[in-house]
Amino acid sequence: MKQELVEQFENYDKIRQEIKIARKFGDDFSLEKGQVAEYVNRLHPPQIKLRVSKIIEETVSTKTLRLTAVNGYLPPFQAGQYISLSVEVNRVRTGRAYSISSSPSQTGYYDITVRRVENGRTSNFLLDKVKVGDFLQSSGPQGTFHYHPILHQKEMVCLAGGSGITPFMSMIREITDRGLPRTVHLFYGSQSLDDMIFHQELSRLSEQFATINYIPVIEKPGPGYNGNTGYITAEVIKATLGNLAGKNFFICGPQAMYKFCLPELDKLGINRWKIKQEMFGTPINICEYQGWPSEIKAQDRFTVRVNGSKSFETSAGEPLLVALEDNGLVVPSLCRSGECSQCRIKLVSGKVFQPEGTPVRKSDRKYGYIHACVSYPLENLEILL
Ligand SMILES: Cc1cc2nc3c(=O)[nH]c(=O)nc-3n(C[C@H](O)[C@H](O)[C@H](O)COP(=O)(O)OP(=O)(O)OC[C@H]3O[C@@H](n4cnc5c(N)ncnc54)[C@H](O)[C@@H]3O)c2cc1C
Ligand code: FES
User: What is the mean pLDDT of each run of 10 residues along the chain (385 residues)?
Assistant: First the structure.
């Protein structure tokens, strides 16, 4: 800032005097200028270059990729956080979030555990194309789906479905590695025993540690299985745990799980503020969401005009972020489920559908900002990136 302008500040002389005194008595930290930013960047780097050091087959449809840092340094993370991988698949640059499944006590690597999604762009690429020795670009660890010592009780009831087991695996591994005074009751719902990721390890840890209570719930069990069957219902939770006071609830998995489990927790009288959720991706059938206008069909086509120049056509059932990426436009993104605000863009004209509960700021709503990852065109749109 120009010196003459600074001198016009109210109390400028007094501030100068304070600086003089601070320098004289050693309270002057001007030499450390910039160090805070450097430290913050070390803990929260926007980008990390990772190398695939090992691939572990977990189930027929799931593999764990062990990732090490190319520069030898991985920032610390909280068990339950995710990284967002940036990949180029069939000439389209895109990103996807994957929870870290290893324990934060393992400082040399991050494990991510990827389950195949039918026709899924990134999961199929990671499972079929990526090999040991390949490099991947990632964000630093992100997200708030983790235990918080001030907000949460020491007893956690965790409900997982499918690949939603991954953040809980990291939490459980940390508790057992470090002997933390925290208990996890893990209800893990799956279609079949073969589909369950980490089943052997979870069964072993549950036998070995009083702090880990593993309760598989299998929809279609094979012969010889004598555990819980069907879904994670209010009855199963109540019959297993009895008294639910003093416990916090965590849910992670595909959207169908929330639709089913939240009403079950309501039946048990659990307050919604006691339930923490992590949604694994964008809604699958957006047209079935509450509030979707019945006259619009998923395949209806609309034009999107970007920054007053480039235009393309897309379908109502496609998230705007995916349509932008398919048209070669890169928008920053991390969670791709409406949570992190990275993909905020300005809607100049037209109307989009955003599922209820998308956490868009009040001021963003007022001035027309939307989260592209969970916005679906209902009319022709004009946007600014
Ligand atoms: C915070 C966070 C953490 C995550 N952690 C993991 C993890 O640890 N392991 C993991 O395997 N995945 C995880 N995911 C999901 C992951 O980010 C991708 O969404 C998933 O791999 C599918 O991406 P894709 O590119 O293969 O599919 P896309 O090409 O994006 O989708 C193809 C089709 O499949 C549907 N679809 C997308 N995701 C799913 C799903 N999960 N189940 C069923 N249908 C789906 C889409 O609606 C679309 O119709 C996480 C997501 C979030 C937001
Ligand atoms: S990428 Fe996180 S809100 Fe869209």
Answer: 78 86 78 84 91 98 98 96 96 96 97 96 97 97 93 94 97 97 97 94 98 96 89 97 94 88 95 88 82 95 96 97 95 92 95 87 88 96 96
Ligand 1 pocket list (CB less than 6 A): 82, 96-99, 112-115, 117, 119-124, 143, 163, 166, 254, 278, 280-282, 284, 335-337
C-alpha of residue 282 to centroid of ligand 2, in Å: 10
Neighbour order of strands in the sheet with 311-315:
311-315, 301-306, 381-384, 344-349, 369-371
**Distance of alpha carbon 369 from alpha carbon 320, whole angstroms:** 13
319 CA distance to ligand 1 centroid (A)? 13
Question: Model's pTM, two decimal places?
Answer: 0.90
Would you say the CB of residue 345 lies under 6 angstroms from ligand 2? no
Distance 340 CA to ligand 2 centre (A): 5
Q: Are residues 55 and 128 in the same domain?
A: yes
Locate the ligand 2 atom nearest the alpha carbon of residue 341 and give its number. 3
CATH number where 343 lies:
3.10.20.30
Question: Which atom of ligand 1 lies at the shortest distance from residue 285's CA?
Answer: 47
pLDDT in tens, 266-282: 999 999 999 998 877 77
> What is the Å distance from ligand 1's center to 179 Cα?
32
In DSSP notation, 257-288 reads HHHHHHHHHHHTT--GGGEEEEE-SS-S-GGG
- Taking residue 307's Cβ as centre, other Cβ atoms within 10 Å add up to 12
Q: Does some domain include residue 284?
A: no
Any domain includes 114: yes
Q: What is the span of the domain harbouring residue 366?
A: 293-384
Long-range contacts of 68-76 (CB under 8 A, 24+ apart): 68/108, 68/109, 70/135, 73/42, 74/48, 74/107, 74/108, 74/109, 74/110, 75/42, 75/43, 75/44, 75/45, 75/48, 75/140, 75/141, 76/43, 76/104, 76/107, 76/141
Tens-place pLDDT, residues 130-144: 999 999 999 999 999
